[in-house]
Write a structure and sequence with these properties.
Blueprint lengths: L2 H15 L1
């Protein structure tokens, strides 16, 4: 898993929560 992928997933998760 690339760092960029991890950051992307984190942003998506935050967007879903908000």
């Amino acid at each position: 898993m690339l760092i960029e992928d991890k950051m992307y997933i984190e942003i998506i998760c935050r967007a879903k929560i908000n």
